[in-house]
Amino acid sequence: MITLNQLTVGYQGNAVTPALEGVFATGSMTALVGANGSGKSTLLKTMAGLLRPVSGSVSMPRPRINLGWLPQQSEIEKTFPISVFDLVAMGCWQKCGWFGAINRSLREAIMTALEKVGMQAFATAQPGTLSGGQLQRVLFARLLVQDAPLMMLDEPFAGVDSQTTELLLHLLQERHQAGCTLIVVLHDMATVEKYFPQTLRLKNSHAEWSGFGSAVTQLNFNRTHGAS
Ligand SMILES: Nc1ncnc2c1ncn2[C@@H]1O[C@H](COP(=O)(O)OP(=O)(O)OP(=O)(O)O)[C@@H](O)[C@H]1O
C-alpha cells in the first residue's frame, strides 16, 4: 500500500500540485490523469523516490520494494550502444546483480518476454534503430522480466499505434491479475474507462479519486465523498 500524506510535489520548493491525501491499495490499478502541466509526472517521480516532496510525505511498503519504472519516451537514452537483448536483461539486475552473469533460465525469461511483445526477431538490434512503438514493446519486455510487485508508467502509449496499445494493455492487465500494483499516467479517457478500475485526477485546487472497485479504501472513500 502506498499512502500520500498531505503530499505536495514540485521543484525548488514550489508545489505544482495541491496537497494530496489517499491510498493506492496493494494490487490496485490506477490511472493518473489531469491536464498538461498538472503534475502527473512530477507526482510519479516523487512516489518513485526520484524527487523529494515539497511538503508532506509518501509512505511506501517497507522494505522499499522492487519498482518497475517506465519513464516518458523523451527521457529514455536510445543511442547507448547495447542490444535489445541487453536492454531487456537490465530488468534482471535484482536477480543477478548489475555485473552478474545471465544464466540460462534468465536468458530464456528474456527471450520469452521479447516473444510476448512480438520483438524476438530484434534481440540483436540496437535500441536506437527501433521505431517508437517497437521501443515501447521492448521496454515492456524489460518490465515483464523484472516482474516487480509495483509498476509506475508515464504515458506508456504516447505515439504507440492502437494494435500495440491493445497488446501492452493486455500485458498490464495480466500483471494486475497477478497481484501487481499499477499506477499509470494516461491522457486517453476511453482507455482509462475501459481498463482502469481506479482513477486519480489532478486538478489545480484539488484531486479527485474515483471508481475504486474492490480496491476501495476508507481514506479514498472519504476523500471522494467529502468526509474528513
Ligand atoms: N525539472 C523541472 N524544473 C522545474 N519545473 C518543472 C520541471 N519539470 C516540470 N516542471 C514543471 O512542473 C509542472 C508539472 O509538470 P509535469 O511534467 O509533472 O506535468 P504533467 O501533468 O506530467 O504534464 P504532461 O501531461 O504535459 O506530461 C509544469 O508546470 C512543468 O513546467
Automatic annotation (TrEMBL):
PROSITE patterns: ABC_TRANSPORTER_1, ABC_TRANSPORTER_2. This is ABC transporter ATP-binding protein. SMART domains: AAA. Belongs to the ABC transporter superfamily. Drug exporter-2 (TC 3.A.1.117) family. Keywords: ATP-binding, Nucleotide-binding, Transport. The keyword Transport applies. InterPro entries: AAA+_ATPase, ABC_transporter-like_ATP-bd, ABC_transporter-like_CS, Metal_Ion_Import_ABC, P-loop_NTPase. It comes from the Bacteria. Residues 2-228 form the ABC transporter domain. One of its GO terms (molecular function) is ATP hydrolysis activity.
